[in-house]
Design brief:
alpha+beta; 6-stranded mixed sheet; 13% helix
């Protein structure tokens, strides 16, 4: 009887070990989003505390293939990675879409969500067309961070759902506010005659 109990214990241990391996290899896989390449965000005015600024996101192309994008979010943070703290004074609460974005699939019916003040967002719940070519999205009505000469980061994510939850591709860009430079020149009147 002890021999049978010992064999049962060995079999149970072996089954437990194999189950653990299967869980770690099959159930423990993490999906990683592809990196958005050739990405940049251009500001129409980089002065600190400027309001009604246009933020234009461009990318040479999204790495997504076979997955329609239904929402895009750009979260603005004081750091490039880790927990996100919105830069002081930055708000996208009054943002609007300047024109329909290009390169995301559907050519129309994209709309802005300004519910999250620290993030620029667009959505199209029924987009079923895959992204192709260069991407361009322009938001108007953004308020820059308060301080001049401040670096902040835009964390870009495309999503396969319209609720900004299932990420597809990601990328981060660095931005900065700057002090406005004023140049003035005085030209003295001078009249010289030579004979």
């Amino acid at each position: 009887m002890a021999d049978k109990s010992r064999k049962t214990q060995i079999w149970l241990s072996l089954i437990s070990f194999i189950s653990s391996l299967l869980i770690m290899t099959l159930g423990g896989q993490v999906a990683h989003a592809a990196t958005i390449t050739g990405r940049k965000i251009t500001l129409s005015d980089s002065t600190g505390d400027a309001s009604s600024v246009s933020y234009t996101l461009t990318s040479s192309a999204l790495p997504t293939s076979g997955t329609p994008v239904k929402s895009v979010g750009v979260e603005f943070c004081t750091t490039a990675t880790g927990a996100c703290s919105t830069p002081a004074g930055f708000t996208a609460a009054s943002s609007t879409l300047a024109a329909q974005p290009s390169g995301l699939g559907a050519a129309s019916s994209w709309s802005v969500s300004s519910a999250t003040a620290g993030e620029l967002r667009i959505t199209h719940a029924t987009n079923s067309t895959n992204p192709s070519g260069a991407v361009s999205i322009q938001w108007n009505g953004v308020h820059n961070p308060t301080a001049n000469n401040t670096t902040f980061y835009g964390r870009i994510t495309t999503y396969s759902d319209s609720a900004w939850t299932t990420g597809v591709d990601t990328g981060t860009v660095a931005l900065s506010t700057s002090a406005q430079i004023a140049v003035s020149v005085d030209v003295a009147e001078l009249l010289t005659f030579c004979t």
